[in-house]
Amino acid sequence: KTNFSLTYGENYVGVKTDGSQISLTLNEDALVDKAMSGNTTYNYSYTGGYLTSWNVVYKNDGFAGSSTKGAMAEIGRSVTGNITSIKYTPSADAAEDYYLYSFEYDDQLNYNGLLPECLSTELGCDGFECLYYAGLFGNGTRNVMKSMEVTHSKREDYHVKYDFNYNTDGYGNIVLCSYGAIENPIVVTYKYY
User: Fold this and answer.
1) What pLDDT score was predicted for residue 1?
2) I want to staple 85 with a disulfide (CB 3.0 to 4.6 A). Which of 57, 76, 99, 160 is the partner?
């Protein structure tokens, strides 16, 4: 369990975890524009209240000098706000080496604003999920994800597909999401207070 504490001002939010302090700068719509911790800086871009791209830069200083590394993603959206595609580049050193994600959606509305499973890293909020749920990374998807396919730009043999299944409670809240192999699925449960 990780503990978080928040401090905030008019255009600033600070997050303190068990590990380190994270400083957030908000844009004019009160969404995270920049997140900084130590030598790491995340930058985020939005259109119409939806996250459309992000990048992260890691600066390393050592005996051999300085180096800068990073990652980035471009996020395609439908007119309803569902994510249609993600182009995720895990290393800025190899911009032609990326993953392409495509999605299909269920008719079921995402009433609870759930973060799509498996996508914290690709949406630039790995470790910052609490900020996603606080609305600081923009609007969630309109519908719940039905399936996701992932391919790689250089590896033709790389193809992964997940189908997602949901259970709801008597109030329409999603309380369970399962995906992966039928014989041994990954199961995520949700609680609401």
Assistant:
1) 46
2) 76
Backbone angles phi, psi at 177, to 5 degrees: -130, 130
Residue 114 has phi, psi (to 5 degrees) of: -65, 140
**CA 174/CA 29 separation, integer angstroms:** 28
Task: For residue 96, name the pLDDT band (cuts at 50, 70, 90).
Answer: confident
Region of 2 (left: φ > 0; alpha: ψ -120 to 50; beta: rest) is: beta
Q: Cβ distance 92 to 70 under 8 Å?
A: yes
Cβ-Cβ contacts under 8 Å for 2 (sequence gap 6 or more): 17, 18
Structure tokens given for 17: 């975890």
Q: Using one digit for the tens of pLDDT, what is the confidence trace for 49-77? A: 999 999 999 887 767 666 668 899 999 99
